[in-house]
Amino acid sequence: MTTYAIARAADPVRAHEAIWAHLLAFNQAAVGDAEGAPFALEITADGDPAVRGGLWAASLWGSFYIGLVITPAEARGHGLGRELMRRAEAEARARGCRQMWLDTFAFQARPFYEQLGFTLFGQIDGPPPIFPRYFMQKLLD
Predict the structure, then answer these.
(1) Where residue 33 falls among pLDDT bands split at 50, 70, 90?
(2) Tens digit of pLDDT for each residue in 56-109?
(3) Torsion angle defined by CA atoms of residues 32, 66, 130 and 16, in that order, rounded to the nearest 10 degrees
(4) Is the dihedral of CA 2, 13, 63, 122 positive or negative?
């Protein structure tokens, strides 16, 4: 019989990759096509190639998850975030996704996402100013 042990990982990044490989293999065997397809948009400024913000997402099983969205502080309120989301939605539709979803904390951008047509489908409560954490979706036709 195999004896198992649990220990704190010395290299969490390497551990994440190894653990993810096992979960991906399990998911692939169960339902197939479990890898997902990433998507990213970068914001740069004045010809400088340094990334100053952007959006990262991934599509999987007909859903488009927006994992990261950030615009440079000095550029907020000028449409960059709206344009990031517009391009992400176009990509989601091009990939045949039925919905987009994301999560955001109380101190972040819930009203912004609501203006774009996202609605609340879940919430985790906790102490302010971090919580609540909102889970939002936008159904695509």
Answers:
(1) confident
(2) 999 999 999 999 999 999 999 999 999 999 999 999 999 999 999 999 999 999
(3) 40
(4) positive
pLDDT tier, 128 (very low <50, low <70, confident <90, very high otherwise): confident
Q: How do beta strands 133-139 and 99-105 pair?
A: antiparallel
Mean pLDDT across the chain, nearest whole number? 96
5 within some domain: no
Please report whether residue 106 resides in a domain: yes
pLDDT in tens, 94-104: 999 999 999 99
Closest CA to 57 of 34, 13, 87: 87
CATH number, position 110: 3.40.630.30
**Maximum distance among all alpha carbons in the chain?**
62
Evaluate whether residue 113 is within a structural domain.
Answer: yes
Q: Which residue intervals of the chain are DSSP H helices?
A: 12-31, 80-94, 110-115
Q: How many domains does the chain have?
A: 1
Residues 6+ apart with CB under 8 A from 18: none
Burial class of residue 92 in the structure, from the number of CB atoms within 10 Å of its CB (0-12 exposed, 13-18 middle, 19+ buried): buried
